[in-house]
Every structure is written in structure tokens, then in C-alpha cells.
Amino acid sequence: MKCKFQLFIFLCTISFNINAQSLFNIGLNIGDPAPPLKVKAWVKGKPIQKFEKDKIYVIDFWATWCIPCMALMPHFSKLAHKYQDKATFLSIDIYEKENVPIAKIKKLVDNMGDRMDVTVGVEENKLMSKNWADTSKAKGIPTIFIVNDGKIDWIGHPKYADSVLKQILNKTWRPELARLKRNNQLYLYDLDMESTGELVDRTYRYEINMAGNTYDRVEIRPDSVLLIIDEMVKNIPSLKFLPGFIVSKFPALLQTDPQKAYDFVREAMATPSYYDEPPYLLLVNAIEENSDKMKVPENIFRLGAECCQAWIDSDPYPELGFTSTTYKRMANLYRHAGDLQKAAEAEQKAKDFSLTNNKH
Fold first, then answer.
1. Beta strand residue intervals within 136-230, DSSP E
2. What is the count of structural domains for the chain?
3. Confidence (pLDDT) at 101
4. Which of 170, 176, 197, 285 is most buried by its number of CB atoms within 10 A?
5. What is the Cα–Cα distance from 126 to 132, expressed in whole angstroms?
6. Which domain covers residue 220, as residue numbers?
7. Would residue 8 count as lying in a domain?
8. Are 196 and 244 in contact, with CB atoms under 8 Å apart?
9. Which residues does UniProt assign to the signal peptide (predicted)?
10. 186 and 123 both lie in a single domain
11. How far is CA 357 from CA 123, 307, 318, 351, in A?
12. What's the predicted TM-score (pTM) here?
């Protein structure tokens, strides 16, 4: 395992950024010709048989079981109305559960009414799941593909679609740069998965439990954890703020030098990972989870509350239901920080938001 990872480190060190895509296989990407539409049934709107030249198509992939997909449908419909004369909007059901009849999908779409006011289709034999979502390494659904003149101009989360579409329409969009950015994000994601496994292997040891005749996993000393992390980050600096390294380094710093733990969280709050925003809620999770195991300084709890607010400020869909919960987490963090006034204010914001949201 060690030799394998050392080779991996070497490859990553010489191949980061522009050539990062060579380390993994992306079968479909920005700039590639769009695969054909494979739809077995159109349940709403005018059927689309193929992509026409010089036309723009915005394709939202969803499924009936996907709660975020359904919650975002009204936003997608508003986007479709906004650009109805400039692009064609499609919602294609993929990854559907086995044996869900077309009639049931159609009934759900019909019940959505104007909240799902786009052309809706159901994929044929998992072909769009396979040829679009899977091969492009899309991270689940909802995911949007924008096809322009038969080529894929963008792949991403619905919250960025409006901004991207504006740039495509005003001719300022650079798909080649978007492809490089996406390659880098996918590279960092794969790097996180690979290196986190190695990190776990190197920061735990196993001791035999004579009573139970089993092996117990025991974490090594925090200063040793930091030495291992520093060694890995020295070889690949981009590891520093990947999620797997944050959740390992933060508690180790907390035990050895709380001020460095504070500085680390502050820096992580300003550093996007392989998503477009910093990992605000990951940092909140790390603070909350470790507060049950060790002493956390008040100033770090305050940072956690700031992370909650930063996440709320960056969320384009507050009505989906996570805002109220995040305000409650903020209140709890302020209580731990000893700031009862701000805790009460956050609790009130959670109540106010719930009342306002429930009216709609």
C-alpha cells in the first residue's frame, strides 16, 4: 500500500492542474459532442427527437425519489420562462426506481402543474443515466447539462445555471476554461478519496483485544497525525484543505495547539475545495463532533457560527428547508461560545424563517 501511494504522490506532484485529467477517465466532458437523446416517453410538452444546429438546450436530470430535484423544479421552470425564447428546457427522468410505471411519473408531473412547466421525458433503458450522468462523473442529481450547437457547454448544479446561461447567450462563455476548471475539481475529488484512505491507514493502528479475540482500531498520537499530514501535504499542497484532511487535521490541532486549530479553520473558511465554495458545513460538523470529545475554545465555536452564516448567505434556495436548521446550529454554537444574546437572535431567526417558509 505504501509503495502504491508513493507512486501516486509522484504522479500527482508532476501532473497537477492542466494535466490532472490524465489521472482519471472522464468519458464525457465540457466541449464534447452531446450524446443522443434516448427517451422512451415524453410525459409533458413537445417531444424533442434530436439536438438541432445553432440551438441551446438546458437539460435537467432528475428522479421522482430525489427530494432536492423536486424542490428545485419551480426554479428550473422560472429559468425556462426567463429564457423561453433563447433556449429549450428539458427535464429527463433518470436513475428511476425499478418498476415505476410511466403513468405514475406522468401523474406526479401533472400534479406539479406550473411548478414543473418544461418538457419532461423519461429515459430509455438507463441509456441517459449511463451515457450522460455516469460517464461524465456527474456527482448525483439534480445535475444540469447545457448543450449549445450540438456540444456540451457546461455540466453542473442547477444553482449556477442562470449565470452560465447568461454568459453563453452574451458570447462571453469560455467552455475550454470551464472544462479545465471541472477537470481540476474532479481531480481534487478523486485525490481526496484516494489520499484519505491512505491517511486513515497511516493514522490508526490496530491492537488485539484478548477478551473478544478481535482487533480494535486505535488512533495514534495527534502530533504523529500532524507529522503524517504535513508529509503528505508537502508532496501535494492541494491536499491541505480537502475534506478528508480537514476532519483529520482539525482535532489533532485542537489537542496540540488550539490557536493553530483556530487559524486552520479560519484559513479553510476562505479556501474553496473541489466545490465552488469553502466547506462551511464540513467545518461546522468538525467543530460540533469534537466538542463532545475535547475542550473547544470559545473563539472556535464563534468561527463555527460564522460558517453557518456564510453557508446561509451562499445558499440560493433557502426555502428547501436547511436554513432554519442551520440557524439552530448557529444558536447552539453561540451558546457554547458564551454569547447568549447572539444565540437567542439565531434561535429567533430560525423561528421566523420557519414561519415565513411554512406560509408558502
1. 143-148, 151-156, 204-209, 214-219
2. 2
3. 95
4. 285
5. 10
6. 182-314
7. no
8. yes
9. 1-20
10. no
11. 34, 22, 9, 10
12. 0.81
Rounded to whole angstroms, the Cα distance separating 171 from 110 reads: 36
- pLDDT for residue 26: 81
| Torsion angle (degrees, nearest 10) of CA 22, 26, 32, 33 | 140
Q: What is the pLDDT of residue 200?
A: 80
The 8-class DSSP code of residue 294 comes to S
Peptide bond into 36 cis (omega under 30): no
Residues 107 and 195 in one domain: no
Quick: pLDDT tens for 279-304. Answer: 999 999 999 999 988 999 999 999 99
**88-93 and 119-123 strand pairing:** parallel
Q: Say what the pLDDT of residue 337 is.
A: 97
| Cα–Cα nearest to 268, from 288, 301, 243 | 243
143 grid coordinates: 445535475
pLDDT at 8: 46
Which regions of the chain are under pLDDT 50?
A: 1-23, 360
Residue 221 C-alpha cell reads as 498520537
Is the Cβ–Cβ distance between 296 and 328 less than 8 Å? no
Predicted local confidence at residue 277, as pLDDT: 85
Q: Are 32 and 129 members of one domain? A: yes
Residue 98, C-alpha cell as written in the block: 425499478
Task: Name the one residue in this structure whose C-alpha cell is 453561540.
Answer: 334
**29 and 169 assigned to the same domain:** yes
